[in-house]
Amino acid sequence: MKKKHLLLIIAIVCGNVFYTIACTGIALTSKDGSYIQSRTIEWSESALLSEYVIIPRGQSLRSFTPTGANGLSFSSKYGVVGLSVVQKEFVAEGINSAGLSAGLFFFPGYGSYLPYDSLQNNRTVVDLQLVMWMLSQFSTIDEVKAAISSIRVVGLEKSSVVHWRIGEPSGRQVVLEIVNGEPHFYENKVGVLTNAPGFEWQLTNLNNYVNLHPGGVSAQKMSEIMLNPFGANSGFLGMPGDATPPSRFVRAAFYRASAPQQATAFETIQQCFHLLNNFDIPIGIEHSMGESPNIPSATQWTSAIDLTHRIVYYKTAYNNTIRCIDLSEIDFDKVAYQSHPLDAKREQPVEKITVN
């Protein structure tokens, strides 16, 4: 791929207008111990080219750098199923055959990588391919932490910065943020992630909402009148409702914490999709009046990954039917390296009911 063409693609996906990019992630564990990581991915400028990607064991892979396809070369130790954006190498969310899962979330204005050094191309991995590198090489979070210093993570486009969510079937999840070239791992006990500011700030900001609680509030007398709640869920009155990352983080944290635990993995998968419906970003709210593109939603796709049973579920803005890929049904020693559009046809199927 020619450098100019590559940089044009990156400019399109990054757009230098990060307010149009958003992601919300929620993780849940079912009563039977199954662990699920789910997320949305948003892009409100146009239809985002997205594919599912199958990477076999033993596949030769290579990272891009800002000057071309000349970064770190590596061979996949594990089979991988991923959901990519723009092109198949840019896996935004995925899982490997060992059950390790990882995803990238845009992180503008707060993360910063090492400067690109062409003399170190042989250990350079671009941020949009770090998920592919992690999932193809490692089976645990600790392995990722031990190996991250062996590579140099750089951006393909200077203003393009992301942070990462990494989980394993045990239910452990960490957030990786690179600031001033230094990787920082945070244990994620709250089970949610959005975008900027940094993860530690987002946790601190939750203290601003210490008054929120599920359920309702009691009527109370003020002077000579009675004050009564207008309806259910008055305990969440004051919850931020806008689409900015801090507000989405707060909502996701409280929705996750108040969600009743489901019995099985599949019931939890369904619950994740229902929870994340609350984070669909409508076309129109991120643009000035009359300037919105003609796409059905800024939320381009939503995924839920069962790390315990190694199954990837997803739906898209064009087709809300949930589809799945079961890693146990793939022979990663024989399958070809391949990618396919998330939607074979960008059209919502409708089940017609016949009344006799």
UniProtKB/TrEMBL annotation:
Keywords: Hydrolase. The keyword Signal does not apply. Gene3D superfamilies: Penicillin V Acylase, Chain A (3.60.60.10). It holds the Pfam family CBAH. GO terms for molecular function: hydrolase activity. Residues 23-333 form the Choloylglycine hydrolase/NAAA C-terminal domain. The keyword Amino-acid biosynthesis does not apply. InterPro entries: CBAH/NAAA_C, Ntn_hydrolases_N, Peptidase_C59. Belongs to the peptidase C59 family. This is Choloylglycine hydrolase family protein.
